Amino acid sequence: LTYRRLPALWINPHPCLEAFWRKSFQGRRLSFSDVASELEHHGKLDTATDALSLIVVQDCAALDSLAAAELARVLSPQGEVVLIPGAHGEALDHWAQQLSEHGLTQSGQALYASDTVCYDTRRLLVFRPDSTTH
Question: How far apart are CA 93 and CA 11, in angstroms?
């Protein structure tokens, strides 16, 4: 997915990855409060349906059903949602449940530790659209 400037959304971006993100992807970087505000004021994210190849959610906090539905709506049928746990790691089960209710299935886990991710050793959870519902 990298080095092709794919359309993507990064929720709760970490400064360590800012340069990598700008070089590798095109798309918005939003805080959790930015996402909540867009959903509250407009009922959806300012992104077309099926438009994003990648959605990264850093330091996942609790996810409500509306936010999960929006992530599923804007993710392309071949896209991926990557959850990176942080201080809210206990919310991962909740995220997985919410995403699965909107047609996204956990397809794996990854563990990367490199200079690009500042040697962060947290596991990443990867979700993809279920081909029967998306």
Answer: 18
Q: Are 122 and 86 in contact (CB under 8 A)?
A: yes
Query: What integer pLDDT is reported at residue 17 of this predicted model?
Result: 78
pLDDT at residue number 78: 94
Compute the distance between CA of residue 100 and CA of residue 77 in angstroms, rounded to an integer: 14
**How many angstroms separate the CA atoms of 129 and 112, rounded?**
23
Residues 50-64: b if buried by 16+ CB within 10 A, e if exposed: ebbbbbbbbbbbebe
How far apart are alpha carbons 59 and 48 in whole angstroms? 25
Average the pLDDT over 77-85 and give the result. Answer: 89
The per-residue pLDDT for 117 is: 53
